[in-house]
Amino acid sequence: MNHLPCPERSRAVLIGASSYSHLDDLPAVQANVPALRALLCGTDAPFRTENCVALVDPATTVEVSKAVQKAAREATDTLLIYYAGHGLVDDKGDLHLAVPQSDNASVYDTAVPYDWIRRPIESTGAARRIVILDCCYGARAFGVQSESVIDLAEVDGTYVMAAARETAVALSPPGETFTAFTAELVETLSRGVPGAGELLDLRVIFREVRRRLKARSRPTPLDLDRNGLGATPLIRNSAYVPTLPPPGTSHDMLHVLESTPRTATVAQLVTSVGSLNEARTATAGDLVRTTLQVRAVAELAPFLAALFEAGLRAPAEAALPTLCLTRPVEEVAHLVDLLHAMSADECVVSLLQSSVRLQPTKQAVQFADALCRAELVEHARVLLTGFALTRDVAETVQLMQDLAHFELTDLLAEVARSVSEHRAASDVTALFLPLCVADMRDTAALLSQIVAESRSAIDAAEMISVLVGEGYDHEARQIFAIGMSRRGPRYLAELVAALQANRLVNAAVTARFLAVQHWSTEDVSQFIAHLLAVGQHQHALEAAVDTARERTVEEFASITSHLTELIADQTMEELLDDAAQACSPSQASYLVTKLEAAGQDGPADRIFWLSLHRPVGHAAGMLRHLDHAGSRFLSDSELSELLRTRPPSDLARLAVALDRSLPHKSKLLLSVTGRPVHQVATMVDSLEKAEANTLSNKVLRAVVAEWSTTAQAQLIIGLEERSQIGCARYLEQLASRKKEFAAVLRTARSQAKPAEPWWPWWPRQRFAYQPSAHTHVTYVVRQDETISDIARRYGVRQAGIIDENDLRVPYTISGGQALSIPLQSDHRRFMVPPFPRRLAPGCIHADVERLQNLLKRAGYLDQLVVASVHYGPKTCQAVARLNREHLLGRPPAPDDDPRITHKGWDILHRLARGG
Question: How far is CA 492 from CA 372, 563, 877, in A?
Answer without folding.
Answer: 40, 17, 54
